[in-house]
Amino acid sequence: MRSGKNGKKIKQSIHKCLFFLNKHQKASAFALSIQKILFLSSVLVFHSCSVGPDYKPPKVDVPSSWKWGEEKKTANKPKEPLASKTASQSKNTIDPQSVDSLKKAIEEAKKNPGKWKLAAPKDFVKKGEWWKIFNDPVLNQLEAEAEAANQQIKMAMANVIEARAGVGAALSAFFPHTNFTPSYQRWKLKTHLPWLPFILPEPIFSTVPINGLPAGSIIGTTHYYGFQPTLNMWQVYLNSNWELDIWGKLRRQLEAAKAEAQASQAELEGARLTIHADVAQAYYLLRYLDSQLEVMERMIRVYEDNLKRVEIRYKSGLSNELDLARAKTDLSRIKSQYIALESHRAKVENSIARLLGQPASTFHFPRKPLKEEPPEIPTSLPSEILEQRPDIAQAEREMAATNAMIGVAYAAYFPSVNLNAYFGFFNTDFGQLFTWPSNSWIYGPLIDLPIFEGGRLLANLMQARAAYEKAVASYRETILSAFEEVENALIGVRLLEEEQKVEDELVESARKQYDLAMDRFQRGLSHYIEVDTTESLWLNAILTDIALRGERFIVRIALIRAFGGGWNESSMRPPQIKNSESNPSAKRQTK
């Protein structure tokens, strides 16, 4: 409870209010009572407290650099062993210098506790249109269409509106709620209920003339207890209720609603980041599949030419039936692979249509083989860039919301105070309903103190605490996953480029090997098996080289996604983009 120190202030304020009200003796009792209630309720509200723990962002383990970032000069240097290498120190002796170093390290650890730092999400940093670094107008157009028509982004936007409306609903609980309630009821009651104190008069008639009055005249009345058989009930009244937030339950609920709204905003930014990254990755996957299809079309023609050569040599007796069967098998195999690759491309094309919010049946993307080199992405950005990731911000805000709900569960143990007021008109005759004698009113506080709940309050509190612990674990797990994604992407950025350099050499050597095998086969120095083996090796090397080029684009997009988006509008340095003029194929693609 935060306001334990305010107890004296509350008492002093109440005494001041009562002293002020007692001086106004001329006020009516009704008005004076209302003034007392309003003053006392105001004191309770302004000097109230909030039970439950205040939110404090947890600390997370954040290394200062990336393991697979830029290469360091000491990257391959072996670590110093824990034990000394000198022969004068044995296993059972301790170096005094190492003891002093250990003591200093312990003191430093107490001052600066490890690598743990407070959570400080920066999802508000503008990411910008990061896909424009690829310098591809077609990709820019696809990303714009996805931003405007993707259904997942629209669902996330609707969630933001819903969460913001929840904040308004939580804020409305701080104000009195007033209802206008007219009603009409017709009752049918049992008569002659002696325990109900209702006295109804009944006239007494004379049967003979008395004192000059004719027979049948009223000579008196009698009374009996009971109800009329039927009764009309007309009511028109205003009913008002105002819950005083003495223990901070409403404030905690508002705090949780605000955190949920911020989490939904982070979820929207995460959906945008995911959709834009998915569009870019699917686009480059489609393009490198187009490159592979282009290569396979050329290789099919090569295999067809080889089959014709083998058939000519077989008919002239220079080749055997095994060579002919091998040539036919190679042609059938490459055609089968081509069909499978076309099927894969069609599925990727359908996925792009869904991301763009278009039916797959009407979406067609023309062939566009991948020729250019991917842009350079900085790999030496500080690890603080992960604070702009929307999923980390969402997890942190959800953690704050669950912490606020602990306060709500705590407040359920304390009495709730409601100010109720009622004013209206009540009558059994509608014609007399709005006359002043028919008015009725009720006002006063209503205190609800839980006595026995069968363990419900304790269970709710334990549930709120467990939800907070789960949110903390989820938050830290999200950060660990973010570092894993960045490191995996950095591995791809560095090693895929090295792998493609080796693969380029393999393609060139496999082509030379195929040329030599074909020359030997045409001169009759070898069988077709050499051509078959070298040709398959050459084709696989080309397809792998194309796939590596596409994977280099895809892994850069994965790195940008792992960073949380772009960095041009943050404190990070912008990427270095290669000049497209140095690559003629890239220049042709961008035109």
From TrEMBL:
Membrane topology field: Lipid-anchor
This protein's GO CC annotations: plasma membrane
Upper taxonomic lineage: Bacteria, Pseudomonadati, Verrucomicrobiota, Methylacidiphilae, Methylacidiphilales
Organism: Methylacidiphilum kamchatkense Kam1
GO molecular function, one term: efflux transmembrane transporter activity
The keyword Membrane belongs to this UniProt entry's keyword annotation: yes
Membrane-traversing stretches: none
Gene3D superfamilies per record: Outer membrane efflux proteins (OEP)
Polar residues bias: start-end ranges: 85-99
Protein name per the record: Membrane protein
Biased composition (Basic and acidic residues): 70-82
Localization, UniProt: Cell membrane
Coiled coil: 247-313
Region (Disordered): 70-99, 571-591
Keywords: Coiled coil, Lipoprotein, Membrane, Palmitate, Transmembrane, Transmembrane beta strand
Family (UniProt): Belongs to the outer membrane factor (OMF) (TC 1.B.17) family.
NCBIfam families: outer_NodT
